[in-house]
Design goal:
Elements lengths: L1 H38 L7 H22 L7 H7 L3 H32 L13 H28 L8 H6 L2
Length: about 170
């Protein structure tokens, strides 16, 4: 049952990575559309703002996927030097990451709620309600907090985390 739940969470992190990739494609489409609009002497108001929203969404949706793929910066050299004490440092680091990202997620959700409550809109030409782009940040922050908690639990229960590879560890195996 627990391993099935772990597979579900891994799928959720992968889905976050796919959503991030779609937002990157949306950035490309917006930039190309803006280029075409300039060539044809038309205006595409709000395109830079929407590209910025897509960039923020791509970043936050990709965080959990990147963590489990070893793309975040980890001090692998220090971890390898610790030997048997590495386990406890990893537990501490994942717990600290969970606490910090939970804090970020909590306040991202609160900011989202306040923006919705006060009908806060962007200051650009697009006049987009800010709770809409902030929603991606809130979801991504919650997903990253869940990913850190998942790695702590996996480390405590299974004695290994879910991070697939580390560049330094992989290079050492050659």
């Amino acid at each position: 049952m627990y391993r099935r739940f772990c597979r579900f969470l891994d799928g959720l992190y992968t889905a976050g990575g796919v959503v991030a990739a779609l937002f990157l494609i949306a950035i490309l489409v917006l930039i190309v559309a803006q280029m075409v609009a300039r060539w044809t002497n038309t205006t595409l108001s709000g395109a830079p703002n929407y590209a910025g929203y897509c960039m923020a969404a791509a970043s936050f949706f990709a965080f959990a996927h990147a963590l489990n793929r070893g793309a975040h910066i980890r001090v692998s050299l220090l971890l390898n030097l610790l030997g048997t004490r590495r386990y406890w440092l990893e537990v501490f680091c994942f717990l600290a990451g969970f606490v910090i990202t939970s804090y970020v997620a909590f306040y991202a959700i609160r900011a989202n709620q306040w923006s919705h409550k006060f009908n806060d809109i962007s200051q650009g030409q697009d006049a987009t309600p800010l709770w809409i782009p902030q929603l991606a940040m809130s979801i991504g922050a919650v997903l990253l907090a869940v990913c850190f908690l998942d790695n702590v639990v996996r480390l405590l229960v299974l004695k290994r985390h879910a991070i697939v590879s580390d560049a330094l560890e992989d290079a050492g195996e050659l």
